[in-house]
Amino acid sequence: MNARQRIDAVLALQKPDRVPVAPLLDHYAATYSGYTNAEIMTQGDKRITAIIKTATELGPWDMTFLADTANAVLLQMGVAAKIKIPGRDLPENAVHQFEETEFLTPDDYSLLAHKGTVPFLMEVMGRLNPAWKGLRGFMPLVRTLLEYRKHVRMVRARGMEAAVGFIHPGVVYEYFSLGRGITAMSADTFKRKDDILAAGRVWAKGMADMAIMSARFTGVPRVFIGMSRASPDFISRRNFEELVLPDLEYTVNRFVAADITPVLHCDTNWTRFFELFLRFPARKCILELDGKSDIFKAKEMLGRHMCIMGDVPAELLVLGSKEEVMDYCRRLIEEVGKGGGFILSSGCSLPANAKKENVRALYEAAQKWGRY
Questions:
Q1: How many CA atoms lie within 13 A of 140 on its CB side?
Q2: Angstrom distances, CA of residue 94 to CA of 39, 105, 351
Q3: The predicted structure's pLDDT at residue 141
Q4: pLDDT over 70 for what percent of the chain?
Q5: Of 176, 203, 254, 290, which has fewest CB within 10 angstroms of its CB?
Q6: How many CA atoms lie within 13 A of 370 on its CB side?
Q7: How far apart are CA 286 and CA 305, in angstroms?
Q8: Residue-level pLDDT at 279
């Protein structure tokens, strides 16, 4: 089997020839390749060179992210918060940071609901970066999409798959949680439910349209959906079912209807909401966990419903020994990978300071114990 056939097999919950390997790569590509984080975030040619070097020499992996979550343009377009970029606001080898303030105001719910998703995004981008105000914001987006499509072809030429064709920032609750800050968003959950619901319907349709168009343009039939602030670590099940789940179901169903695989990127602990994921179409989604949710419980509850991806914890990759990483990978392969439907990956992104031998251990473990 080649890489694409392995990914297709596990998505259908079938057994490939071996467990596929696909760590989430962003800043670690700079660490391994010798570039600075500033170069990786702002220079596409160095970014793709670093990605290919890392993913081939420490694998080859079956699938790799294109450092989407360390792409300065994508981050400025998809996150409603001021960003500090290495080389501009931080030392060149620092990892980027977001300033969590009340950047979005309560009036922004109605602005989104009345203007629509794209005009609203243009407005927010103009506030974050005056050089992108109005229609000028389209040019960096177009350049980034063209560059992204070229990078997808370069990765495929090396026998690997690009992980996703678009980074969806998540439902409106997620987007505003970062833009308003967790304290203000918690208050909005009780004081502005109608505003969240009205904005959510507009956002869900507009972002789904944009994601489908972008995934088709880049040629990668998978879309990352950011999920963190709507987990049971932050909100109740009642609020999740009222304010988040309808938009999430709409988004997932739109992607599936367009033959695009939703990659549910779940940061923080989602274990108590796992049963709700049974509402999503069977054998059509990838559930990506970051080491905080119980991936073994996910296998028990969702293993016959959706592909599971994860979750070697960041702390193990940084502080653990190679033997400890190999042992954890073996447990993942033997328990979560039993019967198929599993992708071996890092828990969220590879830490920038992960040990090289620990990152390499993922591929070695799949080779040693991952054969079906």
A1: 21
A2: 11, 30, 12
A3: 84
A4: 100
A5: 254
A6: 29
A7: 10
A8: 97
Is 0.70 surpassed by the pTM of this model?
Answer: yes
- Give which of 357, 314, 270, 366 is closest to 26, Cα–Cα: 314
Taking CA atoms, 63 is separated from 28, 52, 160, in Å, by 16, 11, 5
User: Exposed, middle or buried by CB within 10 Å (0-12, 13-18, 19+), for 135?
Assistant: exposed
3-class secondary structure, 97: strand
Cβ atoms of 13 and 304 within 8 Å: the answer is yes
Burial of 319 by CB count in 10 Å (0-12 exposed, 13-18 middle, 19+ buried)?
middle
Q: Distance between CA atoms of 201 and 278, rounded to whole angstroms? A: 22
How many Cβ atoms sit within 10 Å of the Cβ of residue 276?
16
CB 276 within 8 A of CB 266: no
Give 289-340 pLDDT, tens digit per residue: 999 999 999 999 999 999 999 999 999 999 999 999 999 999 999 999 999 9
pLDDT mean across residues, the chain: 96
The DSSP result for 325-371, as a single string, is HHHHHHHIIIIISTTS-EEEEESSBPPTT--HHHHHHHHHHHHHH-B
310 forms beta bridges with 344
More confident: 130 or 242: 242
> Residue 331 is which amino acid?
R
Query: Which residue type occupies 282?
Result: A
**Integer Cα distance of 76 and 41 in angstroms:** 11
CA angle 118, 123, 129 (to 5 degrees): 120
**Helix (H/G/I), strand (E/B), else coil: 71:** coil
Residue 23 contacts residue 5 (beta carbons within 8 Å): no
User: 134 pLDDT exceeds 80?
Assistant: no
Taking the C-alpha atoms of residue 157 and residue 219, their distance in angstroms, rounded to an integer, is 14
Contact 302, 262 (CB under 8 A): no
Host H or E run for residue 159? none
Peptide bond into 60 cis (omega under 30): yes
Q: How much is the pLDDT for 292?
A: 95
